[in-house]
Amino acid sequence: MAIELKADSWRRYMLYRSGERYMTFEPEEKRKEAVEAGKKFTASAYADAWAKDAELVKRVRAFLGENFHWHQRLAKVGADLDVVQTLMDMVRGGSVVVIPEKPVFSAGDAAWPPKKPASSSFWGVENYDPPRYASVQERYPAQIAELQANETPWSEIEAMNDSINQKFMHAAVLIDPLGMLPTFARAGWISKYGLPDLSTWGQDADTNDDTDTLKDGTSGDAGEGDASPRLDDAQPFEYSEAAIGGETEDLAASTNNPKFAAKMLGYSSQEFRDMVHRFKKQLGIGAADDLEWHDNGDVYHKDIYLDNFHDYTD
Question: Where are the stretches annotated Disordered (predicted)?
Fold first, then answer.
């Protein structure tokens, strides 16, 4: 049974089950057009606005309760918004159709169709008419065009990201250069963003230590309260094998000469050159930057540990 959903001065929007007979004497093409028009009308509405119309909700409850027994509970005790949203879902799915029909007028009513009202101003705008309904398919290209017109250029986004990355990297390196430099070198950030000024790194701690020592009246080698010893009266020392004790301590050898480093680490000249190339490329070290090799394979740059050289064999 058909029930009126809404009505205005132009149309009555009627609810039908999809299997009911509607527009009986109209061709199939017009029936399909009417169904699509009803879908557009329903899709353009706001469920929360319809839910505030008590009479509309009452008619929808009656329609669902009479035509869909599985919605009896919803029709009786369901929330108004749930009732309206259920109807919209059913129209969208096709189990319910909304058919726009011309309103029925009595003999005393004005002639159909009604005359177009005279133009009037609305909030200072002459000849105001509400915007026509536009489908999602029609709105989408306009929204994309607006986004593209107002979008931030990629070059600006990239520049902002680089600025943030550089500030982050420099701050992290200044806090812990020994721990952070190898990580950023592997990521290629050192070659891209450069190094912060490390010339004063560690000097504050050294200065504080020296100041504390002077305040105590001591030196690093002298006893507490003693002045540094003078060497004017020191006796000459003659080296002999007997002077060497039984215990020895191994000290790490190091060099910044690639030729000596290759021999020290046990690589041929060509193999060593290839490893140096891989090492600097992966860690973002400049080709002209000097490296310092230790005999255990550790490599330093400006007294900062980078990585172990043995890990870069082919």
Answer: 204-233
CB contact at 8 A, 99 and 34: yes
Over residues 101-129, the pLDDT tens digits come to 876 554 444 445 555 555 555 555 555 55
**Six-digit token string for 10:** 């132009």
Whether 218 and 224 have beta carbons less than 8 Å apart is answered as yes
SS3 label, residue 122: strand
Strand order through the sheet with 3-7: 3-7, 12-17, 96-101
Distances (CA, A) of 107 to 103, 104, 110, 111, 112: 13, 10, 8, 9, 11
pTM equals 0.34
- Spatial separation of the C-alpha atoms in residues 44 and 38, rounded to whole Å: 10
Whether the Cβ atoms of residue 295 and residue 264 lie closer than 8 Å to each other: yes
